[in-house]
Amino acid sequence: MTFATLGLIEPLLRALETLGYQTPTPVQTQAIPAVLAGRDLMAAAQTGTGKTAGFALPLLQLLTMEGPKVNANSVRALILVPTRELAEQVHEAVRQYAENLPLSTYAVYGGVSINPQMMKLRKGVDLLVATPGRLLDLFRQNALKFNQLQTLVLDEADRMLDLGFSEELGNIYKALPKKRQTLLFSATFSDAIRMLAGQMLNDPLSIEVSPRNVAATTVKQWVVTVDKKRKPELFIHLMRKGKWKQVLVFAKTRNGVDALVEKLQGLGVNADGIHGDKPQATRQRALDRFKASEVQILVATDVAARGLDIEDLPLVVNFDLPIVAEDYIHRIGRTGRAGATGQAISLVCADEVNQLSAIEMLTRQTLTRQMEPDFEPEHRVPDTDASGQVIKKPKKPKKPKTSGGGKRNLGKWVESGEASAPEPSIKPVRKVPVFNTGPRKRKP
Ligand code: AMP
Predict the structure, then answer these.
(1) Whole-Å CA distances, 219 to 43, 70, 312
(2) CATH of the domain at 372
(3) Cβ contacts of residue 76 below 8 Å, gap of 6+?
């Protein structure tokens, strides 16, 4: 299979040749002909599968071959993404693919001044990459009109819902022309995503390039159990022992990112951090320096690291487990790309047992556990397995109780985010979005 046999035009083939893409990836093989044929698409594809080219190439071809010239303040194709980093990354990919085409492209996102974006949109752009909040701001300030819109792409749709963009998506949906092509990409398919797809897509072709909700199999994953307060010490020990060179580390909170970076820098380690409190330019610089191997250890929160595309990243460390289990798949998707093997190590303390259980249930695997000599936890992490059970240590038999108030089981997380029994320290937060968008209107 070649890109030419998928029906791509010569200017695109030339751009791909420059980029060194030789063979289409599975998601590209399936998506490109379908999008060219005008179909709606619902694709289960993780980052690293080549999904961006899967939607961007045919989209650029359709924009070149079909439709009128773009009007002032108008846009012909819209790619919605969850974060500004991903907006930049997708736009960069689009620019490279569109190198030989007479199309205008642009990216808009929040956290930076809106005025230059309004100026840029005056002439209209053929393809716009946007985060939902900023897009709505621009629309409400009449800087954008959607009457020429022919294609909508929702990239990393699960992430947009996790980040609480469901209301924005509902409002954008209301403003778009009903007759359009819609492509939805998501790493995971929860009920909320299926609901969104039901509303936004028309007779979509379903594409699945990796088993649903299963983490990349090329990543060797394991857990090191440790007491919470000793995590920084263990991290430094493992880093030195393993002679880690380029590591992406995930911490749960902004403070956690800062504290670890400070500790590492204090030891003379070349570390930097990215999180939502830092200005966009600082975050971008840290990413660029990490990609260029000028920074050895990059510590990030989930939001900041979203969409980060680094080739051949050997190791991801979960300093904290994510609150939302799906984030685990996104995190470890940074390594083991394009057939390369990667490693993902999670430092897990007793408080995180329910998160571990939810991850194992979602990825349908029991993660191998290791204990590092001298770091054996005082607070044991209860056993877990892929069934979602948290197995407490067997206790000595007690006298049977006479009343009904027996011990409650620890419970497992369910899709809606409600634990079947309360676990004091961790409260899963999963919003189920509501779309007040009225009945779906189909394409004529
Ligand atoms: P994505 O899943 O879209 O984030 O893409 C992951 C990486 O794969 C990016 O660095 C792309 O440039 C690269 N890529 C995408 N398609 C191909 C291909 N057909 N051949 C080689 N590299 C590719």
Answers:
(1) 22, 44, 12
(2) 3.40.50.300
(3) 63, 67, 70, 126, 127, 148, 149, 150, 151
> What is the token pair recorded at 76?
């012909």
Q: Where are the beta strands (DSSP E) in 88-208?
A: 105-108, 125-130, 151-154, 181-186, 205-208
443 in a structural domain: no
Nearest atom of ligand 1 to the alpha carbon of 48:
2
* 132 CB within 6 A, ligand 1: no
Atom of ligand 1 nearest to the CA of 52: 3
pTM of the model: 0.60
* Cβ 47 under 6 angstroms from ligand 1: yes
Residue 48 Cβ inside 6 Å of ligand 1? The answer reads yes
Is any atom of ligand 1 closer than 6 Å to the C-beta of 92?
A: no
Q: Return d(Cα 120, Cα 123) in angstroms, integer.
A: 7
Residue among 13, 21, 88 to mutate when testing ligand 1 (max atoms within 8 A of CB): 21
- Each of the 444 residues of the chain gets a pLDDT tens digit; together they read 899 999 999 999 999 999 998 889 889 999 999 999 999 999 988 777 889 999 999 999 999 998 889 999 999 999 999 998 899 999 999 999 999 999 999 999 999 999 999 999 999 999 999 999 999 999 999 999 999 999 999 999 998 998 889 999 999 999 999 999 999 999 888 888 988 999 999 999 999 875 444 455 678 899 999 999 999 999 999 999 999 988 999 999 999 999 999 999 999 999 999 987 888 788 888 888 998 889 999 999 987 776 566 656 889 999 999 988 878 887 887 776 555 678 999 999 999 999 999 998 888 789 999 999 999 999 999 999 877 777 766 545 555 544 433 333 322 222 222 222 222 233 333 333 334 433 444 443
Give the atom of ligand 1 at the shortest distance from the alpha carbon of 49.
Answer: 2
Between the CA of 31 and the centroid of ligand 1 the distance, in Å, is 14
**231-242 helix and 254-266 helix, angle to the nearest 10 degrees:** 50
What's the total number of domains in the chain?
Answer: 2
340 alpha carbon – ligand 1 mean position (Å): 13
The rounded distance, in Å, linking the Cα atoms of 375 and 361 is: 27
Mutating to test ligand 1, I would choose from 52, 94, 129, 335 the residue with most ligand atoms within 8 A of its C-beta, which is 52
Same domain? 48 vs 120? yes
Pocket of ligand 1 contains residue 156 by CB under 6 Å = no
412 in contact with ligand 1, CB cutoff 6 A: no
Do residue 132 and residue 42 come from a single domain? yes
Write out the residue range of the structural domain in which residue 237 sits: 219-391
Q: Partners of 80 in the beta sheet?
A: 130, 154
